[in-house]
Write a structure and sequence with these properties.
Blueprint: H1 4-7, H2 17-20, E1 24-27, E2 30-35, E3 38-49, E4 54-66, H3 74-78, H4 84-103, E5 111-115, H5 118-123, H6 130-138, E6 145-149, H7 157-170, E7 173-179, H8 186-192, E8 196-199, H9 201-209, H10 211-226, E9 230-234, H11 239-247, E10 252-254, H12 270-313, H13 318-321, H14 323-326, E11 331-337, E12 348-349, H15 354-357, H16 376-383, E13 389-390, E14 394-395, E15 402-412, E16 415-424
Parallel strand pairs: 4-5, 5-6, 6-7, 7-8, 8-9, 9-10
Antiparallel strand pairs: 1-2, 2-3, 3-4, 3-10, 11-12, 11-16, 13-15, 14-15, 15-16
Helix pairs in contact: 4-6, 9-10, 9-11, 11-12
């Protein structure tokens, strides 16, 4: 058998299948690779579609071990590579092992997720047509392979775009891995347009600890969807994190809560479908309970806002009509908008408003003639005159704090106006 040391002296383009396949070994029904004195094994972790309630793909994970059975980390093994050619050899050997182990067990539909080292990602196309040859040799359709790219490790935008295009042109799907860690940004998502974005575990961990983060995640997933990608939440390890993934409208989930990596691909598991069903039921129940608590919390404010609305309709001066509402603890301000969303006059502020006592926000205190036409609370009110609208919690530009806005469109003579009232909001 040729040694890796000899192979490392070869140009990367000559590290062909024929030169790498001799390092493959058969152990019963399983296949491993040999790098130095390290045995390279595969493990597979299922990736579930929440909508389909079943596994739709499997991520291949490297499980290296020494001759005496000591387990090593994949990173430790790749750190053993002495030069670029040896790194490419190791990466290619791992891909062969993963594909062969996958093909001996998988059906003919589900995806295989393959991690590619950043070095190979960037320069793979320049090292010959290895990956296309690999797919041809083992007759695995490109559309069943999802290439996972650690975009945070690649600084050169041009090389990253070139690498993504290379795999797309082969017919593979492309996933951005660990998005949200390090220097990840949406600019790259829009530029390279991956098929799937895998959200780093740190995001769901923070969401479980911080309700503000949890509230933002659905918007993050929505941005990924609007950018033309599917969202995969990885690192889901608890029921709470699984519920966060469901509430965020993530397309796929991966993590120990659903299934741990294993050498053998799991068969269809009806109990797994049941678990996802139970999670969806709990999510629906929690949403209804939260909605009920939300309504209970708002009840007093809504009743006072209805009085404000009715008095304004009856011709009572705005400054007088809103006093009952502003007298409630937790209110901030009332204001009046025209049909175009422009504020008419200044705010009518509550004594409880933090803007009055915090000088840092004085530049924002005067909102007269401000344009709020893009705000959801204005748009919803103007399309449903007479119905009181309640916004989701958001950061108020007027006070720099989280708030909820009540709004209603009302006819005053021939004019259509929108009455608004802001509440301070803490979860």
């Amino acid at each position: 058998m040729t040694s890796p040391a000899i192979l490392s002296s070869l140009p990367p383009a000559r590290l062909t299948l024929d030169r790498i396949e001799p390092f493959i070994q058969l152990h019963g029904s399983r296949i491993s690779g040999r790098f130095r004195d390290i045995q390279l094994n595969s493990a597979f972790q299922p990736i579930f579609s929440l909508a389909h309630r079943r596994a739709v793909g499997f991520e291949a994970l490297l499980r290296p071990q020494t001759n005496d059975g000591t387990q090593l980390s994949p990173l430790a093994v790749f750190d053993m590579a002495q030069d670029e050619a040896e790194s490419i050899f190791l990466d290619r050997l791992c891909r062969i092992v993963h594909i062969l182990n996958f093909l001996t067990q998988a059906d003919d539909i589900n995806w295989l997720f393959l991690n590619i080292s950043p070095l190979v990602t960037v320069f793979g196309k320049r090292h010959g047509s290895f990956f296309g040859d690999l797919l041809d040799r083992y007759q695995i359709p490109p559309h069943r392979v999802v290439i996972e790219i650690l975009e945070g490790k690649i600084q050169d935008e041009g090389l990253l775009a070139e690498a993504v295009m290379y795999f797309k042109e082969l017919g593979c799907l492309v996933a951005i891995d660990d998005f949200g860690a390090g220097h990840s940004n949406f600019d790259r998502i829009w530029r390279i347009q991956p098929h799937i974005v895998k959200l780093d575990r740190s995001i769901i961990t923070q969401a479980a600890l911080n309700r503000s983060v949890r509230r933002v995640i659905p918007n993050l997933v929505n941005l990924i969807h609007e950018a033309g990608s599917l969202a995969l939440m990885e690192g889901v390890e608890t029921e709470e994190e699984a519920l966060i993934a469901i509430d965020s409208d993530a397309d796929f989930v991966q993590g120990y809560y659903f299934a741990k990596p294993a050498r053998t691909l799991p068969s269809d598991n009806p109990s797994r479908n049941f678990i996802i069903d139970e999670l969806c039921n709990k999510s629906t129940f929690a949403s209804k309970a939260e909605s009920g608590a939300h309504k209970d919390k708002l009840h007093t404010y809504l009743e006072a806002f209805k009085v404000f609305h009715q008095q304004f309709k009856n011709g009572v001066e705005t400054s007088v009509a809103c006093q009952g509402f502003l007298g409630l603890s937790g209110t901030e301000r009332c204001y009046l908008l025209d049909k175009d969303g422009r504020q008419l006059g200044s705010n009518f502020s509550s004594l409880f408003s933090p803007t009055l006592s915090d000088p840092r926000f004085k530049p924002l205190a005067d909102s007269s003639d401000a344009l709020w036409a893009r705000r959801h609370y204005f748009r919803r009110a103007i399309t449903q005159p007479g119905d009181i609208q309640v916004s989701r919690p958001y950061l108020s530009i007027a006070g720099g704090n989280m708030c909820v806005t009540l709004s209603v469109a009302v006819h005053s003579g021939k004019e259509l106006n929108v009455l608004c009232g802001d509440l301070m909001w803490n979860d």
